[in-house]
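ARCHIVE CARD
Drawer: 12
Card no.: 0347
Subject: one protein chain, sequence and derived structure
Cross-reference: see card 0346
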Amino acid sequence: MSSSQYLNPEVMEAIDPVAFQAQQPYPWTNPQYFIRPERYAELLANMPPIEQFRPFFGKQRKHGQASHDRFVLDYERGMELVPQWREFVEELCSQEYRDFVCRLLDVSHVRFRFHWHFTPDGGEVSPHCDSKGKIGSQIFYLNTENDWQWDWGGETVVLDDNGRFPAESAPSFEDFDAEYPAETRDNRSLIFGRQGNSWHGVRRINCPENHYRKVFIVVFEEHRPLRMLTKQARRLVTGKQLITDKERLMY
């Protein structure tokens, strides 16, 4: 693997795809130092300001699940962004990282979307399974002891229902048979693959005003060029938009 500027090749190589796929209740891993420590510090020191984010509150979710309240900033090439974050995202768009994700998830092609989530006091991510369009995610945790007390919460919780709940339902945290909170401090990230039972969530945040749970998320979407061409041909015939807003943000 070639040397990289932000990503840590040793950590990437240490994640065994076979062990990842065998993890229960679905594929997940919680590596530390996926970003080189010195580069991680630079990213933390140059976070996008909250003024760039759009509020996402009180949005009704499918299946009766509670709203996932937070501030959101979607990455788009050409947006106002400091060089450190632009360089990091471009490295995530590299063939090196793309091949890593394909090996982990056992797919041939993958595309990415990127966004930051800043969650204030009272925010919660109710238990849910991601939509079928996603095949997984990597969540980079961006809080430190300088801006966050760990008892305020913020861990993504991997949840095990032993196959009892359909994805189109709204169980509470207490309904699950087991839970595995991700470590979030000291340059941690969470990588997981979506399956039918890939339940996860974040318990209610309890922090002071003007503090935020900060994460940067890479969404993995399987890319099938022939299927995409078929979709676009169908849209052309029906007069619909050829490329959706979500597709426009895929890289």
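Annotation on reverse: Residues 52 and 73 are 7 Å apart (CA to CA). The longest helix spans residues 225-238.
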